[in-house]
Amino acid sequence: MNKELEEKLKKTAERLGLTLDQMPRHIAIIMDGNGRWAQSRGLPRVEGHNKGGQVVETIALDCVALGIEVLTLYSFSIENWKRPKEEIDGLMHLYIQYLVGIRNILMKNNVKLIHLGRMATLPGSVRKELLETMRLTESNTGMILALALNYAGRAEIVDATKKIAEEYKQGKIQLDDINEQTISNNLYTAGLNDPDLLIRTANELRVSNFLLWQISYSEFYVTETYWPDFVKEDLEKAIAAYANRDRRFGNIGTIHK
């Protein structure tokens, strides 16, 4: 973690009355409720996605200010291709606009964009802008914004398994070399710490095939708030809830001795 982020995280901890150890370094968010937000207002579902995209920008900047090291956003799953064509087309158009429009903000705030998911099966126009934004920000040293786009947790594990099998086939590794770290090193999230805190909006109580390997010890926080209504105060409530958890990682911890 760079010194600037560390200093921001310390100041955030002090402001919230927490210790540095109580602050999450990696926050993952399942952004749910865009469509329901729009429908509750008599608007097309795509308007909810449009509003949700604006919130992505706001919350990402809030996380930069808080000193968060990694923000991972579940934006579009492989399963989402089953949605109506009109909605998907609208979403892909929004992704193109977003990926182009956010570049100056990412550069100004030293944020590095990375992609989690299957790049090859994205529409060419989306893939082009995604790759360009990643290229422009690849040398940034501040917060990492990980965009899970065309992503599924099971698919990620399958893809990692294929890469490991290919290395074994080529004689680069032996069977006894394969362990948990080997799998982690071949996931889309290779090089990132696992999420400390997983937030899900819209009061849904499932993980929806998101980061299945990485969230094995993440703390979950669920809010009734739809993603388009999610604001900094909601984010800080989630952080406060996280700070009060007893993270034992299989040990007896400090509370249940």
How would you describe what is shown here?
The chain is α/β, with parallel strands linked by helices and 257 residues long. It has a single domain (25-243), classed as Decaprenyl diphosphate synthase-like (Undecaprenyl pyrophosphate synthetase, 3-Layer(aba) Sandwich). It has nine helices and six strands, in the order H-E-H-H-E-H-H-E-H-E-H-H-E-E-H. The chain has helices at residues 3-15, 34-39, 45-66, 85-101, 103-108, 124-137, 153-169, 180-185, 232-243; strands at residues 26-30, 70-77, 112-116, 144-151, 197-200, 219-222. Strands 3-4-2-1-5-6 form a six-stranded parallel β-sheet, with helices on both faces. The chain is globular, with a radius of gyration of 19 Å.
Low-confidence stretches: none
Number of helices: 9
Main sheet summary: 6 strands, parallel
Spatial separation of the terminal alpha carbons: 32 Å
Q: Please give the oligomerization state of what you see.
A: single chain
Helix content: 40-55%
The name CATH uses for the topology is: Undecaprenyl pyrophosphate synthetase
CATH homology superfamily name: Decaprenyl diphosphate synthase-like
β-strand percent reads 5-15%
Number of strands: 6
Structural class: alpha/beta
CATH-defined architecture: 3-Layer(aba) Sandwich
CA radius of gyration is 19 Å
Mean pLDDT across all amino acids: 95
Order of helices and strands: HEHHEHHEHEHHEEH
Number of domains: 1
- What's the CATH class, please? Alpha Beta
Shape: globular
